Amino acid sequence: MTGSRVFDHRPCQLGEGPFWHPIREHLFWFDITGNRLLTQTSAGPEEWRFAENVSAAGWVSRDVLLIASETALLTFDLTTGVREVVCPLEATNPITRSNDGRADPQGGFWIGTMGKKAEAGAGAIYRYYRGELRRLFAPITISNAICFAPSGRTAYFTDTDTRQILAVALDAQGWPVGAPTVHVDTVAEGLRPDGAVVDLQGNLWVAQWGAARVSAYDPQGRYLTHVGFESPHTSCPTFGGAEMSTLFCTTALQGMTEEARARYPDAGKVFTAPTLFRGQYEHQVIL
């Protein structure tokens, strides 16, 4: 599929964590190493600065987000700017930071951590659910692709270095049951799966770092199609827009040479593309 264009012209060192707020009806995303939360509304661009890395969020209400930072999960009021710590997140480990995350259908919030220099096995994947933060999977080097099937009974995630996206069954409360299994294997292709989202039909859309694209796989893990973007480091997709059929994708400048930046002048920006698919609305986080 083609037709991608720049949605927002502010470049990010490490764009990540895009999500469409179903009540506010506009996109939010992060520049992780820039310590920024960004949005684009009909009134124009807006952003908020933080004292440390911020990477992912879910919506609690119209005005309140649950945000994953370098050291905590915290609530953030978009209207007042008030920030309150919900619980620490590897707060005593200076090596790590938060990375990919997403709200699940049961109202929980999954968040991955990783080493700031991608140290091998330094990270993990956690779930916050109704007051409890529980570590689910470790060790993880680069936590990514956290997303959920429409049924609410399957979660997906990856350690990017393995080049495999895993699937794990969930119980009625959203906790993993049994061992994860390989859902999509890109080892032979040499691809690096990054952030991902599942559409309303159960297809998994995954950004492939270094490949300048987002690829879609059907519920059985078979390749369907891809959308190309004019930025090599695609980092995370999400669906939004009036019909939830617009694909958004964050990208990154991180790791690009001056020659590559000259070749891709829109690298690090957020892109958008129309699709024939419809996304799921982001689930509400229940604190």
SSE diagram, text form:
Layout: E1 5-8, E2 15-21, E3 26-31, E4 36-41, E5 44-49, E6 54-59, E7 64-69, E8 72-77, E9 83-88, E10 96-103, E11 109-115, E12 123-129, E13 132-140, E14 143-148, E15 154-159, E16 164-170, E17 176-185, E18 193-198, E19 204-208, E20 213-217, E21 223-228, E22 234-240, E23 246-251, H1 258-263, E24 270-274
Antiparallel strand pairs: 1-24, 2-3, 3-4, 4-5, 6-7, 7-8, 8-9, 10-11, 11-12, 12-13, 14-15, 15-16, 16-17, 18-19, 19-20, 20-21, 22-23, 23-24
Kindly identify the CATH topology.
Neuraminidase
Average pLDDT, all residues: 97
Helix percent reads: under 10%
Q: What is the number of helices?
A: 1
Shape: globular
CATH class: Mainly Beta
CATH architecture: 6 Propeller
Total number of strands:
24
- SSE succession: EEEEEEEEEEEEEEEEEEEEEEEHE
Pick out the low-confidence regions: none
Give the helix/strand class.
Answer: mainly beta
Main beta-sheet annotation: 4 strands, antiparallel
Head-to-tail CA distance between termini: 39 Å
Q: Count up the domains.
A: 1
- Largest beta sheet: what is the strand line-up? 1-24-23-22
Radius of gyration: 17 Å
What percentage of the residues does DSSP assign to strands (E)?
over 45%
Task: Let me know the CATH homologous superfamily.
Answer: TolB, C-terminal domain
